[in-house]
Design a protein that fits this description.
de novo design (two linked rop proteins), mainly alpha, elongated, 4 helices
């Protein structure tokens, strides 16, 4: 197995870009919401990339699949947080749209990768 193979995966690199976008969004939150909502969003978005990376180091497809599932759940959590920000007028429309586009793309990539794995 190739060492650090995840660094070449588009889904990993896209998840890192999503994390960068989440950091920018959190930075612009009202101060009273940066810690509670912001830190949760940051953890969820970072978890997407971290679980892809950790899973890539596993020796079986079944183990990798488990980490991809965790990554997908963290992606859903990131989406729910973005929806909450939008509903409460705390995120710019263009940033929300960009985040949703990235989330959708990562979700599709994770689903595709999961389909290639032996169950």
């Amino acid at each position: 197995m190739e060492k650090f193979r995840f660094r070449k995966w588009k889904v990993y690199n896209d998840s890192q870009e999503l994390f960068s976008l989440v950091l920018k969004i959190v930075k612009d939150l009202p101060k009273e919401f940066r810690f509670e909502i912001g830190s949760q969003m940051i953890r969820a978005a970072l978890s997407v990339a971290l679980n892809i990376a950790e899973g890539s180091g596993k020796t079986t497809d079944k183990e990798l699949n488990r980490f991809l599932n965790i990554s997908l759940r963290s992606l859903y959590e990131t989406m729910a947080a973005m929806d909450a920000l939008k509903l409460n007028g705390m995120v710019q429309e263009d940033r929300y749209d960009e985040a949703m586009k990235r989330i959708d793309g990562i979700s599709n990539q994770l689903g595709g990768l999961k389909k290639t794995l032996v169950k």
